Amino acid sequence: MTATLAELYVKQGLIGRAREIYRRLAEQGDAQARKRLSELPSSGAAIDELQGLLQRVKERRR
């Protein structure tokens, strides 16, 4: 696992896989990996948006 592979995952939109690689590298003491890990977008905002969409769909079906 390398930072290069993690960046390929980022470019493909596979943030979770990239996060896992950076997390492992950071655990091994890689300060750059720790920094990059903190820069990656959080999935929290996307999850909130999807939950809101799901709620609107449910309300319309009633």
Summary, kept brief:
This protein is mainly α. It has helices spanning 3-11, 15-27, 31-39, 44-61.
Features of this protein?
62 residues, mainly alpha, 79% helix, elongated
Itemize the secondary structure elements and their pairings.
Blueprint: H1 3-11, H2 15-27, H3 31-39, H4 44-61
Order of helices and strands: HHHH
Residues in β-strands, percent: under 5%
The quaternary state of the protein chains shown equals single chain
Number of domains: 1
Straight-line N-to-C gap: 48 Å
Structural class: mainly alpha
Roughly how much helix do the residues carry, as a percent range? over 70%
Q: Give the beta-strand count.
A: 0
Estimate the global geometry from the Cα principal axes.
elongated
What's the main sheet like? none
Q: Would you mind describing this structure in some detail?
A:
The structure is a single chain. The chain contains four helices and no strands. It has helices spanning 3-11, 15-27, 31-39, 44-61. It has 62 residues and is mostly helical. It has one domain (3-61). The chain is elongated. Helix 1 (3-11) packs antiparallel against helix 2 (15-27) and helix 2 (15-27) runs antiparallel to helix 3. The mean pLDDT is 92.
